[in-house]
Hints:
The protein is mainly beta. Helix content is 11%, strand content 35%. It has helices spanning 4-13, 28-47, 157-160, and strands spanning 56-62, 65-70, 77-78, 87-92, 95-99, 110-111, 114-115, 119-120, 130-133, 136-143, 146-153, 175-192, 198-211, 214-218, 229-234, 248-253, 263-268.
Amino acid sequence: MRKLSAILLLYALILPAHSQAPPAPSNAETNWRHQLESWRSQREKELSAPDGWLSLIALDWLKSGVNTVGSASDNSVHIANAPEHLGLFTVSGKTVQLLAPHAGFPAALTLDGAPAREGPLSADDQHPSTLVWQTVTMVVLPRGDRYALRIKDANAATRTAFRGLHWYAPDLHYTVEAKWIPSNPPRHLKIPTVIGTTLDLPSPGIAEFTLDGKTLRLQPVLESPNDTTLFLILRDATSQINTYQAGRFLRTNFPDHGLTQPGTLVLDFNQLYNPPCAYTPYATCPLPPDQNRLPIALSAGEQRYTP
């Protein structure tokens, strides 16, 4: 690890261009701590937002054909806090459509911000069609060769009872400079998920770093072509006791010379955070690939969630 002032200066320099200018070395650690505290506060705010992960109440698989949705017992998808018959979702191959129930759509049901209407739905992770009735939000998402209806409720007990997250104390020991080893051309990495599917994501290179006397490697991925950060899915020895058992996530800026050239980047493990599956059984999270299972303890970042 470099001296404190040097690594903090590097950390500041690779922040996005709109960030403030690097602080004077004497103020570097204070500035770093303030940025970390701000990031953690924003993390808790997003998690507990009305449509955040703590509001997720169900993930129901849609069968081929007609799926009825509502609070009545004769529905194939049951939502307690909803009208008796909210709507029908029909699945035919790769087409998902919304149809009105016999009595018509309930009052105040909206589709993408407008009154609900019959027709095909956009079912993709980036821009899914969004149905809203009062505090309930629904989207259809593809998962492998199936479709799932994700349901959130802003009044879910998991959200209203939220009292905050648990963090390790900030520790610069876990802010390290890594060597960037690009893969030309970029490889693809097979990422398993908790529901048994596999994601095939581009991996532009490897981050190599030294911590606690060990030289280690992590292989990040890009979730979409428009990503401006690297996404790391990893697990370390703390998962056995203090952190989420399945692993944690980390995002970091691109290397100083871009993805295709050798260079350096900063891995701030103080920004490790839990996947959605740490808060709800209805998320479909990626799991760390074998090469990202570290033999050391990263006593930094977010700890195991306890409601």
